[in-house]
Backbone:
């Protein structure tokens, strides 16, 4: 793709770094920004900057937050004895949109994937174990994607928390194998949470 402007080429390269964005889509984004008035462009730039300067990770659950402790963890009405383990912020949003879960979360920040160089040490697993050992947690719900990486991560967590003899559940398989939580409809995801099953029952099959 040839560009008449170095600035446009650099902008296209920058947008093309976003997931799922190719050079042609990136060019459409750039041309749209060019057509916007100065205020809109400055506002977009300011918001993007705030994503890096004003957001942080909750010290309790690792969810993305504007405060040291996110709104869910600081909500006294939530059940802190139940912790739902998810991959990232998108899964928290998906589950919250069902309106059926009233417990706390623990965001891993990814899934174990040796091919991508992601090992357990790269994830927030040790802090989950610490949470179990120091808090009144009675149930852990594994709400990870029904993929090879999700299953591997779930089994690893199962082995890590086994010594604590805590109730460990996983969402029911209303979520098809290979699917990701963020793409599941709210009804299906809600039912999968409500009808969760003991994790060790999967190991006996």
Residues:
């Amino acid at each position: 793709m040839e560009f008449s402007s170095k600035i446009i080429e650099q902008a296209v390269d920058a947008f093309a770094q976003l997931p799922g964005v190719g050079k042609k889509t990136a060019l459409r984004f750039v041309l749209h920004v060019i057509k916007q008035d100065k205020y809109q462009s400055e506002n977009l730039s300011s918001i993007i900057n705030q994503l890096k300067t004003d957001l942080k990770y909750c010290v309790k659950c690792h969810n993305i937050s504007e405060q040291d402790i996110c709104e869910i963890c600081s909500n006294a009405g939530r059940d802190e004895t139940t912790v739902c383990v998810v991959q990232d912020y998108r899964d928290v949003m998906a589950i919250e949109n069902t309106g059926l879960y009233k417990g706390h979360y623990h965001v891993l920040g990814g899934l174990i994937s040796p091919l991508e160089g992601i090992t357990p040490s790269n994830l927030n697993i040790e802090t989950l174990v610490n949470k179990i050992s120091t808090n009144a947690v009675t149930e852990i719900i594994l709400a990870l994607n029904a993929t090879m990486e999700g299953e591997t991560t779930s089994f690893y967590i199962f082995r890590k928390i086994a010594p604590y003899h805590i109730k460990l559940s996983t969402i029911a398989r209303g979520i098809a194998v290979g699917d990701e939580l963020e793409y599941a409809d709210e009804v299906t995801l809600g039912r999968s949470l409500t009808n969760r099953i003991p994790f060790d029952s999967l190991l006996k099959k």
The two ends are 53 Å apart (CA to CA). The first strand starts at residue 56 and ends at 57. The chain has two domains: 6-53, 77-203.
